[in-house]
Write a structure and sequence with these properties.
It is globular and about 60 Å long. Helices cover about 60% and strands about 0% of the residues. The protein contains twelve helices and no strands. It has a single domain, classed as Methane Monooxygenase Hydroxylase, Chain G, domain 1.
Length: about 260
Amino acid sequence: MSFQERMSYTDYLQLDPILSAQKPLSSAHDEMLFIIQHQTSELWMKLAIHEIGSAINAIRGDQPQPAFKMLSRVARIFEQLNNAWDVLRTMTPSEYTEFREALGQSSGFQSCQYRAIEFLAGNRNLAMLGPHRHRPDLLAQLEAILWRPSLYDEAILLLSRQGFDIGPDAARTDWRETRRESAEVLEAWRQVYASPQRYWHLYELAEKLVDFEDYFRRWRFNHVTTVERVIGFKRGTGGTSGTQYLKKMLEVELFPELWRVRTVL
């Protein structure tokens, strides 16, 4: 029962710094909930980044099968992130106003890890680098992601290596910008979905990507409804339009041709 000179559970998980990282700036009871919800979300996002990066490498190396497990895990991670909103929604508008001023201009809009997930997936809005320019180290991490193909880029390049015509995507060299939808890519995915037994690995990859975006969209929707429930239509602490900005984000698609292909089948 003695761990005086052996590694304990607390030692291995570094629980002392983790559990001492909650430092409310007010006396409001619900600020602890607010801090823990966002800190745990950042931990889940760190794991999502780890899994997406590994999935990208697997697809790039023509080994999509290991990526299936990784992408399934990412979808489950976003299920956990979705469940976190249920806890936060127990906080009422009155309770939030007790400590909102203590947040200053800090906002989830400034989450570098969330931005990394968007960039890794393929939503590469360069204007979103702005909130991170005050941290050269974080900016460098995001820039490194932008210089390489995204998850969806790699899936499309895999289509090309498998003999499909991917149109303008075959000639892309600038990965920093969000790509445009392509009729050729849509047709390639249509062929995959029309013959799943023939292209099973591509078919399963497509469904794993759709599963990921499905949960990602639910996370965004739950974010909107939680914010509207707590602050209504006030501006966000980080300077955004709050709910209105989040609703616009619901229109963003990560893998557009994979959603269009359902219509053309």
